[in-house]
Amino acid sequence: MNHLVILPILVPLLGAALSLFVEHRRYGPKVQRAVAWTSLAALAVVVGLLFADTVGGDIRVYLLGDWPSRLGIALVADQLSAWMLLTTLLLAIPCLLHACSGWDRRAPHFHALFQFQLVGLNGAFLTGDIFNLFVFFEVMLIASYGLLLSGGRGLRMRIGLHYVVFNVTASTLFLIALGLLYASLGSLNMAELSQRIAEVPPAQLTLVKATMGLLLLVFCAKAALMPLYLWLPESYARAPAAVAALFAI
After folding, report:
1. What is the pTM of this model?
2. In 3-state terms, what secondary structure has residue 92?
C-alpha cells in the first residue's frame, strides 16, 4: 500500500503536536516558528510528490488499518484533491509568513492551531467517505474557532462566538443528514453512494431527496452562500489577516 496519501494529514498533525510541546516560554517564538516552517517544508515535499503521482490521472486509494472501505477510513487522492492540496499549501505559506512577522506573539497557540487547521483542510480534500468529511470539517472548524478568538477581546470575541454557534448548528444538521443517508443507503462511502442512489426504490426516494436537501443546506451554510452568509462579513473583517486568508480556502 502506498503510504504517500496519508502523509499530507500526518505531517501537519505531527507539526501541531511538536508546536504544542515547544509552546513553553523557555523555548521562545523562534523555536515555534522553526517548527512551523519545518513542518510546512515537509508538507510541500509530500504535496509535490503526491501531485506528481496523480498528474497522469491515476487515483490512489488508502485504507487505514487495511479495513474494507465501508468499515474503515478511506482516503482517495486524484488530480482534483492534489490541486486542492497544492492550493492550500500555496495559501498557507504567505499566511505563516505574515503571522511570523510578529502577530503570532499575541496568540500563544497560533502555530499549533494553524497546523491543526491544515490537518482538517487536507483531510477534507483527501477523504473518500462522507462521514470522515464531517470529521475533518470539525477538526478544521475547531482550529478555526481558536484562531479567530486568539488574542481577541470585545467585539471580536462576540463576533467569534456568533461564528462558533452558527457552525455548531450547521454541524449538527450535517450529522443528522449523515444518519438519514446511512439509514437510506447503507453506506457513506462516496464511490458507493453514487451507485446506490441510482438504485433507490421509489418508496425511499422522498427520504433520500429530503436528506440531499438537508446536505445542500449544510454546505450552503458552511460556504456562506446566500442567504446563509450572515456570519461571514463580520468574521472575516474581525479576524487577523493570516487567519482570514486561510479561512478562504
Report:
1. 0.88
2. helix
**pLDDT of the residue at 151:** 61
Per-residue pLDDT at 235? 75
Q: How far apart are CA 241 and CA 147, in angstroms?
A: 11
Question: Would you call 57 exposed, middle or buried from its count of C-beta atoms within 10 A (0-12, 13-18, 19+)?
Answer: exposed
Percent of the chain at pLDDT > 90 equals 36
| Residue-number span of the structural domain to which 71 is assigned | 3-247
Total structural domains within the chain: 1
Q: List, in sequence order, the alpha helices (H) in 127-154.
A: 130-149
- Distance CA(240)–CA(186), nearest Å, equals 43
Query: What is the distance between the alpha carbons of residues 168 and 162, in angstroms, rounded to a whole number?
Result: 10
pLDDT in tens, 62-112: 988 777 766 778 899 999 999 999 999 999 999 999 888 887 887 778 889
The three-state secondary structure class of 37 is helix
Given a contact cutoff of 8 angstroms between Cβ atoms, the answer to whether 115 and 19 are in contact is: yes
Per-residue cell: 85: 492540496
168: number of Cβ within 10 Å: 12
Spatial separation of the C-alpha atoms in residues 238 and 139, rounded to whole Å: 22
Say which DSSP state 62 is in.
E
Our separate counts of H helices and E strands in the chain read: 10, 2
- Name which of 138, 91, 93, 146 is nearest 119 in CA terms: 138
